[in-house]
Amino acid sequence: MVVRHRISLIVISTALLSLLIIGFVLSADVKKSQKELTIGERFHHETSLTWRHVIGDFLSFKPKKPPQYKTYPEAKLVRLPDPDYRGMIVEDAIKNRRSVRNYSARSLSIHQLSQLLFAAQGTTGKMYGQPLRSTPSAGALYPFEVYLIVNNVQGMSPGIYHYALLKHALELIKAGDFSSKITDAGLEQDMLGESDVTFVLSAIFDRTRHKYGERGYRYVYIEAGHISQNIYLQAVSLGLGSVSVGAFLDHKMNDLIGVDGRKEAVIYVHAIGTL
Ligand SMILES: Cc1cc2nc3c(=O)[nH]c(=O)nc-3n(C[C@H](O)[C@H](O)[C@H](O)COP(=O)(O)O)c2cc1C
After folding, report:
1. Ligand 1 lined by 189 (C-beta under 6 Å)
2. Is the shortest distance between the CB of 65 and ligand 1 below 6 Å?
3. Does this model's pTM top 0.85?
4. Most distant pair of Cα atoms in the chain: their distance
5. 230 Cβ inside 6 Å of ligand 1
6. Gap from CA of 100 to ligand 1 centroid (Å)
7. Are 256 and 182 in contact (CB under 8 A)?
8. Which of 10, 31, 60, 182 shows the greatest Cβ crowding within 10 Å of its Cβ?
9. pLDDT 10s digit of each residue in the chain, 275 long?
10. Ligand 1 atom at minimum distance from 98 CA
C-alpha cells in the first residue's frame, strides 16, 4: 500500500516537474523569438489588428489632431492654371507606364505641372463640407503634404515649393537651384537633379495616428503608393517620363524641405521630366 502510494507520488511529481520544464522552455522560446524579430517584423506584428488590439487601441493614448492644412503665409504665391487636360484613356496609361530616368533638356510647362499636382493631391469633391482629394486616404484624414523641387518649369524660378491644394497654387519656400542637394539626398541618383520637377511627399503622421493609433503608420505608407501611382499615370498621359524613388537619406531629404523627420517626414519622392 505504502509502496503504491510512493509510486504515485513519484509519478505525479515527475509529471509536474516535466510540465514546469516544458513551460519554462516554451516561454524562453517565445521570449527568444520575440527578441529575434527584426525591426520590420516587429513593426508589422505590433501594428497588426486583432480584436484585442482594436479594443486596446480604442482605449489607448492618441495624439491631438494636427491642422489639416499646412500653409506658408509669408511665401510668394504662384497661381496655377486649371487642371483641364484631357489625355489618353486610363487603360493605355496603365499599359504604357514605365519608370523613366532620362529626360530631355526641354522644360515642363506650367499646365503640365498643374495637372500633375492635381493628380497627386488635387481636390475632387466634398463630403460633409470637407474637401476630398484625387487619391484615397484612410478615414479621409489626408496626412500628406506635397513639396516640389523645381529645376526646369516654364515661367517658374527654380526652388522649393509647397502645394497649397485648396487654392491649387504653389508657395515658394526657398528660391535657388537645389538639383545637387536633392541628388545628394537621393544617394546620388542623377535623375533627381536632372528632372524638370521632383515631387517630395511628406506625411504628418498624427493626422492619421490621432484616429488609428500606431496602425496609422501603415496607412500612411500605403497612401504614398496611391499618390505616386497617380503621378506615374498622369505623367504617361502627358507624354512625360517619371520614376518613384524610395531610396534616399532621410535626414537630408527632411532637411531639404524643412521638416523634423518625426512629426512630419518624407516618405516618397517622384522625379518627372520631358522626353
Ligand atoms: C517603393 C518603390 C521604391 C522605388 N525606389 C526607386 C529608387 O530609389 N530608384 C529608382 O531608380 N527606382 C525606384 N523605384 C522604381 C522601380 O525600380 C521600378 O518600379 C521597377 O524597376 C519596375 O519597373 P517599372 O516601374 O518600369 O515597371 C521604386 C519603386 C517602388 C515601388
Report:
1. yes
2. no
3. yes
4. 105
5. no
6. 9
7. yes
8. 182
9. 555 666 666 666 666 666 555 444 444 444 545 578 999 999 999 999 988 777 777 777 788 899 999 999 999 999 999 999 999 999 999 999 999 999 999 999 999 999 999 999 999 999 988 999 999 999 999 999 999 999 999 999 999 999 999 999 999 999 999 999 999 999 999 999 999 999 999 999 999 999 999 999 999 999 999 999 999 999 999 999 999 999 999 999 999 999 999 999 999 999 999 99
10. 26
State the burial class of residue 1 (Cβ atoms within 10 Å of its Cβ: 0-12, 13-18, 19+): exposed
Give the residue, out of 94, 231, 244, with the most ligand 1 atoms within 8 A of its beta carbon, to mutate for a pocket test. 244
CA of residue 59 to ligand 1 center, whole Å: 39
Closest-CA residue, ligand 1 atom 19, reads 99
Name the grid cell of 128: 460633409
